[in-house]
Design goal:
The complex is a heterodimer of chains A (about 200) and B (about 230). By secondary structure, chain A is an alpha/beta fold. Chain A is globular, with a radius of gyration of 19 Å. A five-stranded mixed beta sheet of chain A has the order 5-4-3-6-7, with helices on both faces. A two-stranded antiparallel ribbon of chain A has the order 1-2. In chain A, strand 1 and strand 2 form a beta hairpin. Chain B has about 230 residues and is α+β, with helices and mostly antiparallel strands. Chain B has four helices and 14 strands. Chain B has a five-stranded antiparallel beta sheet. A five-stranded antiparallel beta sheet of chain B has the order 6-7-3-10-11, with no helix packed on it. In chain B, strand 10 and strand 11 form a beta hairpin. Chain B starts with 9 loop residues before the first helix and ends in a 5-residue tail after the last helix. The chains are: A alpha/beta (about 200), B alpha+beta (about 230). Chains A and B meet through helix 1, helix 6, helix 7 and helix 8 of A and helix 1 and strand 11 of B.
Chain lengths: ~200, ~230
């Protein structure tokens, strides 16, 4: 018995997860959940690796300007009445491209209900154009180059990792933020629960 | 009939302690497993990511007087893109030739087609040549006319480079381009390079990640170096 218990204890230690290293991802979570607009999304977001947005004000988001594929300046302020999904990505980021079909699908499904998805690329317009030619995207792609990473960092992604997805409620409150791949079902549920009235 | 066990005997203590120890250990084990289960359900692999400087460890040395060798140690579960290495030269007395990198593992990318990646360990070579001054006329030779030199004066200079690389984690997340400042002097031995910045910085993004269809041209490197470098098929 004693032997069995000791063996089980060893297994318990061996199966323990590695310590979480990027503590900033967790620490900052509370600052995001603090502005969650619904209990359902709060529950969903707190279970995710959330990159915080401690000093993000609506002004930070809505005054940001990026050029679109045609070279025309686009201010994020034009979408302040929308449920805005900001997806940071790059053509050199394979996982980013992997999840983009989900955004295409959700944009098609929910654009008429007040959801606006935008893809801010940490990339050149040339690379983005090359990508878009192969993979048609139905929402605005804004090639932000280095400015994209800087803006992503402003929204709490302190290591500038990609993909990074942020959902902003109408008015500018960040209600969800995630580093890494989103889950389609989970993400759609968050959007559905926070559709503009 | 069983003999009645009397209290205060050593045998009595051992028998009564066994279940006690068992349940104590079981309790510890339960705590461990429940903690592990909680952490697993609450944490996705993203939370196990580590800062870039702990994932991509880089050291540099002079392989020979004309070649700097960069060695990347890449943590398990992470990889670097072959075509994302860039070198910015801040040493006017040196010219850096094309990066010499071995063939990587080929992946198909929807945008860029054939893309190569490195795992675990990779060595990148940077061929150096010195820019000599024409002492006869006093004018500086053009960069294209830079000649390979191993003269003592050139080697006495310190080479200053900005090395950019970029990689991702298998869990589905990518690091932004990483920049390392390299200051190296011939004969100074190995140098572990601290990460300078993590971000796009001022380094231009490549036009493509894809591998060239043709082999790289022969580079002016020593015979020993050539053994290391596999030609791109």
């Amino acid at each position: 018995m004693l032997l069995l218990a000791s063996a089980a204890l060893t297994v318990g230690y061996l199966t323990s997860p590695q310590p979480v290293r990027l503590s900033g991802l967790e620490v900052a979570a509370s600052s995001v959940t603090g502005v969650l607009s619904s209990p359902a999304s709060e529950q969903a977001a707190t279970q995710l690796p959330v990159s915080g947005a401690p000093d993000v004000t609506p002004g930070v988001i809505y005054t940001a300007i990026f050029k679109d594929m045609a070279g025309k300046s686009q201010s994020l302020g034009q979408w302040q009445n929308k449920l805005l999904v900001i997806n940071f990505w790059a053509t050199w980021c394979a996982p980013c491209k992997e999840e983009m079909p989900i955004f295409v699908k959700l944009h098609q499904k929910l654009a008429a209900r007040g959801v606006q998805i935008i893809g801010i690329a940490a990339d050149t317009s040339l690379n983005v154009a090359k990508f878009a030619k192969v993979t048609p995207i139905n929402y605005p792609l804004l090639p932000g180059d280095a400015g994209a990473i800087e803006f992503s960092k402003r929204l709490g992604n302190r290591f500038g990792l990609l993909p990074h997805t942020v959902v902003v409620a109408p008015g500018g409150a960040v209600i969800y933020a995630k580093l890494g791949l989103i889950s389609e079902m989970e993400f759609e549920a968050i959007l559905q629960q926070n559709l503009p009235k | 009939m069983m003999k009645r066990l009397r209290p205060h005997t050593p045998v009595f203590f051992v028998i009564t302690l066994i279940p006690l120890i068992f349940f104590m250990l079981l309790g510890v084990y339960s705590d461990e497993t429940s903690a592990a289960a909680t952490a697993t359900s609450a944490a996705t692999p993203v939370q196990e990511l580590v800062p870039a400087e702990d994932v991509f460890k880089i050291s540099a040395r002079f392989r020979d007087p004309k070649t700097i060798e960069l060695t990347y140690q890449i943590a398990d579960g992470y990889y670097l893109y072959r075509k994302r290495f860039r070198v910015g030269n801040e040493s006017p007395q040196f010219k850096v030739g094309d990066i010499v990198s071995p063939a990587g593992t080929v992946k198909q990318d929807a945008t860029f087609g054939r893309v190569e990646t490195y795992r675990k360990r990779v060595q990148i070579l940077l061929p150096l040549s010195s820019v000599n001054k024409d002492k006869g006329t006093g004018s500086t030779t053009k960069a294209s006319a830079a000649s390979l030199s191993t003269d003592a004066a050139a080697l006495a200079n310190t080479v200053k480079l900005k090395i950019t690389s970029q990689g991702c984690a298998d869990v589905g997340i990518c690091y932004p381009p990483l920049q390392h400042d390299l200051t190296l002097k011939f004969g100074s031995g190995d140098l572990v390079m601290p990460l300078t910045t993590s971000g796009l910085g001022q380094m231009p993004l490549p036009q493509s990640l894809s591998s060239p269809d043709t082999s790289r041209p022969a580079l002016p490197v020593s015979p020993g170096v050539a053994d290391l470098v596999k030609k791109t098929p």
